[in-house]
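thread from #wetlab-drylab

HS: before we spend reagent money on co-crystallization trials with P-hydroxybenzoic acid, can we at least see a predicted complex? here's what I'd submit
DV: go for it
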Amino acid sequence: MKTKVAIIGGGPSGMLLSQLLHTRGIDSIVLERKTKDYVLGRIRAGVLEQGLVKLMEEAGCADRMHAEGFTHDGALISYGDEMFRLDFSELTGNFVMVYGQTEVTRDLYEAREKTGGAIEFEVNDVAIHDANGAAPHVTYTTQGKKRRIDCDFIAGCDGFHGVSRQAIPLEVRREYEKVYPFGWLGILSETPPVNNELIYANSERGFALCSMRNENLSRYYIQCSLSDSPDDWTDAAFWEELKRRIPKAQADTLVTGPAIEKSIAPLRSFVTEPMRWGRLFLCGDAAHIVPPTGAKGLNTAASDVHYLYNALRDCYENGSEAGIDSYSEKALKRVWKAERFSWWFSSMMHRFPDQSEFDLKMQIADLEFLRSNKAAQQAMAENYVGLPY
Ligand code: RFL
Ligand code: PHB
């Protein structure tokens, strides 16, 4: 087979890139290791920046998001029984969209299927060849048969555990990593959200987050030990612990119910450099991971897609390789800012096993400064709603 862009990974990065390229008549083939049902069963991000909303519009996939998503122009931060609000619209003139990653991915699959997009599911043994040479190609197996795709470019959109990053030789690649000594236990429940805006809670028992998908679908997280498994937590134990970590007024009105999904995610900061090697480009979680506290993972994946899509467009439409040559540098500049914000917000909100009394005082001072200082609030809000592309 032959295509212009071989895309490895059918998560949100790969599907968004494929659909955007399609709008400019640039063909691609998406290779996905799992089934479509599996990809659409993963519960992940819930907060979208304007940049991603605009890309979904450009991809022609934004109708359901505008009809069913919720714009949020603020969020709450609590510590103990104290709570304050960050007013995004007043501080930045901007807002975020609450619409699940699962729905974003579903909308992208629907659009690709409607327009005859080539997606291969359940592929195995994906391997990248000659990415730094004149004849890049990808091989894989499907239903026991070996296949080959010859292409102009390869987009590695295969997430943190994919193969694309490993195709960049070790002498070229540099990795930066920080692993956090705790995880997030998340549940989805068919209950009304405890509040109409998100609540990020720092408590002496650890972090908690009250989020949502719609009026009757809530998403809650609590910081947990890395040795915990979801089965260790009954629904009742989860609700009890959540109530102890959020302010009393909210705990008293929290509506509980059975968890329809329960999972634990480890927290990690990770960046690989460069994000381009010859004709291979890394996008999204394949190149970088942030702890979810700042809601930046999917949004940073989207900014990579923006830079790559425009670079490829410029190449095919104007014969210019300038965008391709500057892709890694441009993407990484924004990635590192998202890393800094996610690390800072995570550090301020969680309990760390080795935290000293001094460290705890610093956390509270940081929170009180944020609560009382407009410039600090503005910096936080600008990062949260999304830095410009
Ligand atoms: P994905 O979503 O991991 O998709 C990669 C796809 O590649 C496939 N794959 C392969 N395919 C072929 N061959 C191979 N060898 C392959 N290896 C892997 C996989 O099956 C998969 O389908 O990466 P992508 O597209 O870059 O998207 C990144 C986002 O998924 C991620 O950054 C966010 O979910 C992170 N995140 C959040 N981001 C936000 O912007 N806002 C949020 O509110 C937010 N909340 C979260 C989150 C992530 C979480 N978890 C579970 C890590 C909350 C949580 C709990
Ligand atoms: C979510 O709703 O899943 C969510 C929201 C905000 C975050 C992380 C996750 O920071």
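DV: Residues 8-14, 31-34, 39, 44-47, 101, 123, 126, 157-159, 161-163, 184, 186, 265, 284-285, 292, 295-299, 301 surround RFL (ligand 1) (CB under 6 Å).
HS: ok that's useful, forwarding to the group
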